[in-house]
Amino acid sequence: MTAYPRSPRLIKGGIVLVDARSGAVLRVVALQYNPDTLSRTLAVQSAGGQSGDRLEAMRLTGPPAETIKLEAEIDVTDQLEQPDRNPDAPQLGIHPQLAALETIIYPGSAALQAAETLARAGTLEIAPAEAPLTLFVWSKERVLPVRITDFAITEEAFDPNLNPIRARVSLGMRVLSSSDLPTGHRGAGLFMTHLQNKEQLARRSAGAMPGALRIGAIG
């Protein structure tokens, strides 16, 4: 059966890992199914806070702290009957897809082994391994540097070998703004591009006149 020719092409959301120095794409993890909902929370960063300082009441110290939460579904049930679509499905289920997501929040094994070697050699201070720059991509309008803060997996079905074949993955992410990253960092530049794009979109929004709110002149 062929798809309806006029149906819109589905664009997938996902996560891209990038080398922060070179900009090289290290890995792309596309969501199998786009979530039906995406929750975003923005916490205002104000200078006044709860101090009651009237001189600081209107000052913003930086971009709001934005968090994103979503729930993604992974399912290879239908691919078990059509192994040509995914040859790994009969032997591994969704282990590869889960591993692609999980290893985003793991230091690489080579980095851990290198740190262990330094520790055995008596090195007193070992810097934590730096992770790749993680980008959350949700259409061309939203390419955001993020840090994954919450990760939960609910495996819902298994094959006879106990390989998971269906699961729900809950992801929590915090957007990294120019306040979080060093000056000149590739992620800070991407955040500024996102903010400028947001400002352009805001200018395209049709503004209402005070009369629409049943008020007269302000001031």
Can you describe this structure?
This protein is an alpha+beta fold and 219 residues long. The protein has one domain. Helix content is 19%, strand content 28%. Strands 2-1-5-6-7-4-3 form a seven-stranded antiparallel β-sheet. The termini are far apart. The mean pLDDT is 87.
Q: What is the end-to-end distance?
A: 64 Å
Number of strands: 7
SS summary, helix count: 4
Strand order, sheet with most strands: 2-1-5-6-7-4-3
If you compute it from the alpha carbons, what radius of gyration comes out, rounded to the nearest whole angstrom?
23 Å
Q: Structural class, from helix and strand content?
A: alpha+beta
Low-confidence stretches: none
User: How much β-strand is present in the residues?
Assistant: 25-35%
Domain unit count: 1
Order of helices and strands: EEEEHHHEEEH
Helix content: 10-25%
- Main beta sheet, described? 7 strands, antiparallel
Query: What is the 3D form?
Result: globular
Mean pLDDT across the residues is 87
